[in-house]
Amino acid sequence: MENKKVDLLSYLPPVVQDFEEIKQIMNTESAEFNLLVKEYHNLLCDQFVHEATENGLSRWERILKINPKPTDTLESRRWEILNRLNIKIPYTFKMLKNKLYALYGDNYTIKLISDIYTIRIRLPPVSDAELRSTFNMVSVIAPANMIIDIAIDENLEMKERKFIL
User: Fold this and answer.
1) 90-113, pLDDT tens digit by residue?
2) Which residues in the chain show pLDDT less than 70?
3) What's this model's pTM, rounded to 2 decimal places?
4) Element housing 109 (H / E)
5) Which of 37, 66, 33 is nearest to 49 (CA)?
6) How many other C-beta atoms are found inside a 10 Å radius of the C-beta of residue 132?
C-alpha cells in the first residue's frame, strides 16, 4: 500500500486531460494526495506495535508511561512495549514462568527460594536494555516482599527468538 501512487489526472475524462492547466493542477494535487496516502499508511502501521513507526512507538510509550533512554533502538523500544502490554493479572509464579518462556524459550532458569523470599532468574546473554526491561517486568509481577535476583548466565545459549507474546 505504501508504494501506491495517486494520479488524479487519470480520474478525469479524456477530453480535459489534454489541457496544460489541468495537467499542472492535477500533478500538484497528486503530490499532496501521495503525502496523504503515506501518512494514512503510517497511521495504520502505528496501530500495531510490530509495524509502528517512530511516532507510533512514542505514542505507545506515552500511553504505557515508559521513559526510553536516548540510546534505545527501535527494536528495544518495541520489545519493552510488547513486554508491558503482555503483563496480565493475576500474577502467579506459573504466569511468570510462562512470560519468561514466551520471551526466552527454554533458555532461562527460574527458582523460587521461599525460605529467603527470593526469586532467582538466570538469562542467556542479552543487552542491558533487555535485562533492565525483564527486571522491570518481574518487579511488577513479583510480590513486594520478594527479592529479585536476576543475572546473565554465560552457560545459557541465546537462540533465535520469535515474539509470540
Assistant:
1) 788 888 898 888 888 888 899 999
2) 1-3, 88, 156-165
3) 0.54
4) strand 109-113
5) 66
6) 16
Alpha-carbon distance values, 88 to 45, 76, 92, 96, 137 (Å): 25, 21, 10, 10, 11
- CA 134 – CA 128 distance, rounded (Å): 10
Of 98, 103, 101, nearest to 83 by C-alpha is 103
Provide CB contacts within 8 A for 155, sequence distance 6+: none
Residues 6+ apart with CB under 8 A from 132: none
CA separation (Å) from 156 to 63, 106, 131, 144, 161? 35, 9, 14, 28, 14
Who's near 145: CB < 8 A, 6+ residues apart?
Answer: 117
Beta-bridge partners for 147: 118
